[in-house]
Amino acid sequence: MSHALILTDGKPGHENQSKALAEGLGCSFTLLPCAYPTKGRKALSYLCDRVGARPDLAGILPAARAAAAARRPDVLIGAGSNTFYSLKLLRRALGAPCVAILTPGGYRLGGFDAILAPAFDNPPARPNVFPIPTNLTPARPDFYAAQTAAFYERHVPRTDRAVGVIVGGKNPVADVSPDWLRAQLEALFAATEGCERWVTTSRRTSPEAEAVVDAFPFDYKLLFSRERFNPIPAFVTECERLFVTADSTGMLSEAVAVGHAAVEVLDNLTVATGKFARFVDNLCAEGYAHRFDGALGEARRKVSLGPTLAALRAKLGL
Questions:
Q1: By CB count within 10 A, which of 75, 234, 235, 237 is most buried?
Q2: Is the distance from CB of 232 to CB of 254 less than 8 angstroms?
Q3: Cβ distance 190 to 156 under 8 Å?
Q4: Phi and psi, residue 150, nearest 5°
Q5: What predicted TM-score, i.e. pTM, was given to this entire model?
Q6: Region(s) of the chain under CATH 3.40.50.2000
Q7: Distance between CA atoms of residues 96 and 76, nearest Å
Q8: What does DSSP assign to residue 203?
Q9: Does domain 141-291 have CATH number 3.40.50.2000?
Q10: One pLDDT digit (tens) per residue for the chain, 318 residues
């Protein structure tokens, strides 16, 4: 089996995408923390990249060489701006191809063997750029089976018809106000009579929004502020419908990639342009999702990255 060395900045949204790519390429993997000791070092990395210099600004070389001595990597993977410069550095030092996940803004696109860039970032057309419609998500059936079994240890359904609700939180282009959320949940309950309703909030959900969720008679309810358990794998594999707030590209990506649920977007975007809006627009235009307007859609199409991963394996020689 091929092996990947994953540079991780510790952010779950970045690290999980890197793991998903390694698994999609059929690789085992080792995680290697990657961070700059100062903001100045990171700023300097952009200049060094422009002129082709490769000093070890993140101090990652000793640990990378030790990891490579234990298991030679066949590919280097990193997601997020704290990893991009070090990917190029280790590509030269270890002689392994490198893959960047997300568009490496500010860095030259040359020097990466491949870049997996979300289509909503409008990436440039380059031979090493592979546009993908969503974020990368785990695809291992055993992962979903284990997580779903753990969910059913916590909840015994009264019917085999369930709808899941995934509530995010405020970000620079979206908001989950209590009044907006209450109106969405009232419409959702009216549209899903006869179904079990499951809900989970996230680390970004405000106390005020969680109080609104808590006031509704959900059959299963997880409030992130009170309990640390991830029911989302069970939601995406077991529910016939999923309602997801538009602020979370990660959760929407998983909803349109796994399972059989029709996906309803709870559109809480406060900015009508930009990458979040393009992401939702593209999903709805391609039949992966439907903007919830009180009526239910039938957007059950699922994203398949199989052809992209096959092309990437060929390019990397894996």
A1: 235
A2: yes
A3: no
A4: -65, -35
A5: 0.85
A6: 2-133+307-316, 141-291
A7: 7
A8: T
A9: yes
A10: 899 999 999 998 899 999 999 999 999 999 999 999 999 999 999 999 999 999 999 999 999 999 999 999 999 999 999 999 999 999 999 999 999 999 998 999 999 999 999 888 888 899 999 999 888 887 778 889 999 999 999 999 998 899 999 999 999 999 999 999 999 999 999 999 999 999 999 999 999 999 999 999 999 999 999 998 999 999 999 999 999 999 988 889 999 999 999 999 999 999 888 888 999 999 999 999 999 999 999 999 999 888 899 999 999 998
Mention the CATH class of domain 2-133+307-316.
alpha beta
In whole angstroms, what is the distance from residue 293 CA to residue 138 CA? Answer: 30
Residue with tokens 């559109």: 267
- Token pair, residue 144, equals 């979903």
